[in-house]
Amino acid sequence: MSEPARAFPAYEDDNQAAPTPLRDWLSALQRYEADANGPLQAPAADNSPGGPRLTSPTPPEQAEDADISELMAENLMLKAKLQVEHDRQDALQSALAAQIRELREHIAQEMASLEELRAEQEAVQAEYAAFRAERDALTAERDGFREDRDLWRARAEALAKPLFQSVKA
């Protein structure tokens, strides 16, 4: 709850109350109480210079009741805001949990595809090693055939040499 429940101007006059839902509710409540109790009338004052001056005192209970009513209204407002914030937090947590589940499923799928790629890579590497071994075997066989060819060529030349030499006598 980042915003305060009630914000008052720095210097608020009693004559100039800030228009808020709480103030509206309190003023309606005070009007209702005034209507229920009847209009307050000051007793007839004898304003003679020597006589006592009569005033209508405000009972302290009304001031306390107003304060209590104001506090109760503020408490109700705070509870409502807390409930709204709690509901919002629950909604965010459920959305977050759903996204985490989706991410976990996606990660599981990616890990499975990674394992498939690793298995395929190992199979390709094994096949490559087999081809390399076969190539090495064929290269060795070819080299063996070349050695045999060279040997037979040398023998043939050695046998043919006396035939083609001219006899000098």
Describe the structure.
This protein is an all-alpha fold and 169 residues long. The protein has helices at 21-37, 60-164.
Beta percentage is: under 5%
What's the tally of helices? 2
Structural class: mainly alpha
Average pLDDT figure: 80
- Topology pattern, helix = H, strand = E: HH
Runs in which pLDDT lies below 50 for 5 or more consecutive residues are none
- Described by its quaternary structure, the protein is single chain
Gross morphology? rod-shaped
Number of distinct beta strands: 0
Rg (CA only): 53 Å
For the record, give the distance between the C-alpha atoms at the N and C termini, rounded to a whole number.
128 Å
Summarize the structure.
By secondary structure, the chain is mainly alpha-helical. The protein is built from two helices and no strands.
Main attributes of the structure:
169 residues, mainly alpha
Q: How do the helices and strands line up, and which of them pair or pack?
A:
Blueprint: H1 21-37, H2 60-164
Helix pairs in contact: 1-2
